[in-house]
Fold:
Amino acid sequence: MHINAVQMVGVTKTFGSVVANKDVNISIRKGEILAILGENGSGKTSLMNMLAGIYFPDDGKIFVNGEEAIIKSPMDAYKHKIGMIHQHFKLVDLFTAGDNIILGEEAPDFDIKAKKTLLKEERINITNNKWKKFLIDLKIVCLPLGKLVAKLKFNWLSRDRVKVVQAVADKYGFDIDLNKKIYDMSVSEKQTVEIIKVLYRGADILILDEPTAVLTPQEIEKLFVVLRGMRDNGKSIIIITHKLNEVMAISDRVSVLRKGELIATVDTKDTDEKRLTEMMVGERIELNIERTTPKNVKKRLSIHGLTCRNREGLYALNNISFSVNSGEILGIAGISGSGQRELLESIAGLQKIELGVIQYDDPKTEKIVDLRAKTPNQIKELGVRLSFVPEDRLGMGLVGNMDLTDNMMLRSYSKGHSIFLDRKSPTELAQTIVKDLEVVTPNMKTPVRRLSGGNVQKILVGREIASAPTVIMAAYPVRGLDINSSYTIYNLMNKQKENGVAVIFVGEDLDVLLALSDRIMVICSGKVSGIVDARNTTKEKLGMLMTSIPEEIEVFSEPINEN
Amino acid sequence: MFTVILTQAIRFGLVFLYGSTGEIIIEKSGHLNLGIPGIMCLGAVGGCIGANLAVGSGSTFLIILTGILFSMLFAGFGGALYGVFTISLRCNQNVTGLTITTFGAGVLGFWGSKMGRLNTTFYEASKSFTAPMFGDNVGSDWFSSIFLSHGPLVYLGIAIAIIVAIILKKTRTGLSLNAVGENPAVADASGINVNKYKYLACILGSAISGIGGAFYILDCTRGSLEYVIEAMGWLSVALVIFSLWKPSISILGSFIFGVLYILPHYIAGVSFADKELLKIIPYLVTALVLIIISFFKKRETQPPSSLGLSYFREDR
Amino acid sequence: MFKTKREPLFHLVKRIDVSKKYAWAVRIGAFLLSILVCAAISSLLTDKSIGFFFKYLFNGTFGTKRTIWNLFHETAILLLVSIAVTPCFKMKFWNIGGEGQILMGALGCSVALVFMGGKSSDGATIVVSLILAFVFGIAWAVIPAFFKARWNTNETLLTLMMNYIAVCLVNYFIKSVASSSTGTLTFKDGLVEPIGGNQFILFIIVSVVLTVLMWVYLKYSKHGYELTVVGESENTSRYVGINNKLVIIRTLILCGALCGLIGFLLVSGVNHSLGDATVEGRGFTGLLISWLAHFNPLAMGLTSFLFVFIDNGASQVSNYARLGASYPKVMTGIFFLFIIATEFFINYKIVFKKMKLKEISSNGDKDIDKEVKEPQENDIDIPKDDNNAQEGITEMIIKEKI
Structure:
């Protein structure tokens, strides 16, 4: 019989109209590693945030060691010996690792009453020695002073303040310099600091949110050794992930979530990657998207050996090569953060690239234009009609505080030599978009941040299409959208494809990618793990490609029409 | 001559030291308090009122004590006002600070004109402040007159700066305060009560700055109500940057600022115009320091990362 | 076993949807409240009635023809200063150096006046002094802009320091030219003649014209659009290909030029003198006004007017009640504190939660759980009532069990 360290019963959490978790029952035993597996948006993180005190469940209960626990803040979670290592580390860059770990630590209790009773008992036992009695009396009187001294002593940052922390680190076999500043540290070192912090605070239940996402394979191996060591020490570890190989490598049991609901909890040794993938992605749902055969296919964009690094200096894109053709939709699948953003921004001229070639075949002049290391303005001046629907709609694609017209102008305002803005054509464009795409807005002067997500996206996509592009790149264009708005976007993309535009569609819903795209490129940790024919592939295959790179990489390409 | 300059430099520098020590505490919590000049004015008013209350008793100790307490009380009120506006009401820090400066300088001017410029009662009170702490018999050699001939508030100011430096560098309280100014979200997640720290920093920092204002009137000018405290407040804000947010450096910096401040009065044979040029130096050097630290981008010398930003933990 | 679950008594929510009516009602209410507080404080300090305060408040502003002219003149100056710094703020460049930039403009103008006044023709002197005013003002604005664009130097602190460098430079100039210990330089020749014999009208005309132009610039020009985008989101400006550095420097050149012009007008058209107090702190006041009016020229005009109304009125009160020159400062300080506080009530709402006791059985048995299940909580939204906004500043959403 196992004792459950944590048990979540019937936990439900909604954000507005979105149900993040629905009636989830999950448990973790003492001394085991539980993997929580699921696609992006399946509710893994929000579920765990309820354990860590970031969110409070709308419904359901949490039991820690068999007793009900109410966790309203991270401090409450610490008190129940639960610690979470978030994907975005919560560390002060300027401090050393040691100082970050002891930051916010509460002073040990100095219980005057208990000490008093203890001393009093001692006093009773002494019968004949007056001097000793007096000494104890003095001690009792001085207790408040003792408390003060203890407090001050605790408050003092002595030179060997990291000693205790070092002991914790040594106990679990962490190799880390606690006197190193965080800003000098690599991502994996920062993660180690977070783990030590949680352990130092006395956590018995550790939750790690996608801990391997930022690590190299060697670092992942090291992390796993540490995690196993901690498990053998009796700690319970929950690891949130969507990488199947890691689930198989590290976990004792797996709980699979899909669309906010718990699908099943199985013992790892009784399952395999294929069955897990099936559980994770579910049955294929046929979507009612009309897909036409690509016509008049010509090469439009070709990318060779594209490589760039992210802010941490790690490879965000590693030797990516593919081409995009006119009249087709190239779907891009991958776990979020695998390099999708960097890929699109490199093409749009917003990301510094280290290596590689980006070539554009101009349909008008039939010349090849080099897009490498160009600013967006230079790309525009070259006559390349490139549209980009970024992931961050209100932070990048649109300005939330501006109205529709002014947002339309973002792309077109600099046209012409007048020093004044031409608001006439953007206003007309805005009206057309509102009419054609059925944007719901109180009036044309409403700042776009006050519109719903679907309407915001329609405005953004509408504007990007309006410039009559030859290439459209859309990053997660239906994220957070209701079903009707999503279909509007799919139809727009299809229409563009029929007009001979090369469409790059970065998506997360595999059903949509399978129904909409002509070809699907799967990227995994910044590398291409396959380019497949969307008509002849399965969800499972995509799922496998998303999580691991096969030895032999399949590259499917449309027959190019050379007339 | 040389000794007189150095002695006076220490004395006047102490006004900057009080001001900057207080401002450092506040800025470490992530609040750029441009209200410090006004808060020092409030402190001056409080100090005079407090010292005046006890002047009848004739006890030096009592006069100084009430003077300090009242200046801290008045200035602390200014700091609390600033805190309510910028912490709880999340108003723009620059706007609030400048308003508090207007308000504080106004209060000093208003109250001063009611009291009369050369009020003899303050002169009486100031005697307690200017009386050398170590008595009159410390000797008349250069060392004694430069370092040992000051009133008690000079030593108190240096002591406060040292204590604040130690607290910031060597205690958990300082560590937490630093974390609040660097990244309040992290501090919050680590279980630090961010608003408590911010309020305490604003109130305590203002109170310390306020002593500077009182010190100026009751020691430097010997009880004559002068309205240059606002300008000295701005120099204190400059000194914070000059000393790279470290009270230990600002002890030395305050002395340098003090020399530059009083030097024009003591150099003979220099035209009025050149004396004005000398006054530029503190601001100019501070501006250069600011540019140089941004140029080198060394993490330790940057202003606190969240300086000037309100913290609002989104409803979860 | 039962446990009690508590939620905080109230918490703050950012308002997404702020109606203009509500915002203005809060602001006007705050203004009236601040006047009342000023009156109350004054009558406490002077043993005079509140009526006395109001009498001289209006007497000092609308009492005579001259005070009315003065009211509008001062409003015009202040409005122009806030107009000058507005583009910087709209770009989220915290230029608190308006004071120094204007003072440098005044210095530039004075340099020309000292070396040309009476020696060259008045026309030439005016042109040169205007040009020098522009050059000095622009220089003082471009330096922080350059360092901000190049190395991301903290512009707030740098412009603050440069204010005082400007003060020192002005004093240096005065003393090296006048070689006396007086604090001001006065000029007789090469000045701008008052229009139609009315010394107030020049500033009012310039201010109105420039306010309109600035409004057009911000709203209808490409430059104005670009700087707004830079201020709103650096990511977006990158996305559409705006050169952020260029925009920052260009905008600060504009700001410096306007500040230089103000300095020129103050020296050549109004004061006919230069002193370190020529600007009278308007650089700071102007930035407060610009920020509080949310960069809306009309609101800036109104706020400037209210500020000058209190400032001039309080001066008159202080003259008659012998309260000293600093009394108006205290009053305007109170006025500003009230207006600043309105920002909070406009941008946030306080949501009160009725303390609720939720009984939670810690028994894990699911069947029992379903029986004890709570009725759903309902949010009752009290809709915003614009007419009632003054009383309902802290709008509440009462959350309670039904």
The two ends of chain B are 66 Å apart (CA to CA). Chain B is about 75% helix and 0% strand. Chain B touches chain C through 55 residues (CB under 8 Å). The longest helix of chain B spans residues 60-88.
